[in-house]
Amino acid sequence: xxHFGRPRYVGNLSRDVTEVLILQxxxxxxxxxxxxxxxxxxxxxxYCFVEFYEHRDAAAALAAMNGxxxxxxxxxxxWATTPSSQKKDTSNHFHVFVGDLSPEITTEDIKSAFAPFGxxxxxxxxxxxxxx
Length: 132
Prior knowledge:
By secondary structure, this protein is an alpha+beta fold. It has a domain of 72 residues: RRM (RNA recognition motif) domain (Alpha-Beta Plaits, 2-Layer Sandwich). Helix content is 21%, strand content 25%. The chain is built from 3 helices and 8 strands. The strands form 3 sheets. Strands 2-3-1-6 form a 4-stranded antiparallel β-sheet, covered by helices on one side. The protein is elongated. Pfam families: RRM_1. Keywords: RNA-binding.
């Protein structure tokens, strides 16, 4: 998602709130592209994602609607985040810092020293980058 294209997350909704009501309220700020209501059959409150055509309207909605009461409940409005299932899996990535190296040690020396332990994605040495 690009920042301006990301929908607004609207949470802590009353179970009586509908997509139609959310669209009526948020459309007063600016034209809405879509609203997707998520109602899980658990004890969690419903929430929804509201998408605007224009970034300025989305930003205005965040400022105007966060903390407002809709049907008696104070709603939370924020930028929507990418679901964790779509994020790159970094569970097998490890970061190692090696300090106090002699100036004659090169990035290639560091990469060679750590090569037996697995694939190295990036090695940094004094501002030098080596992609692997």
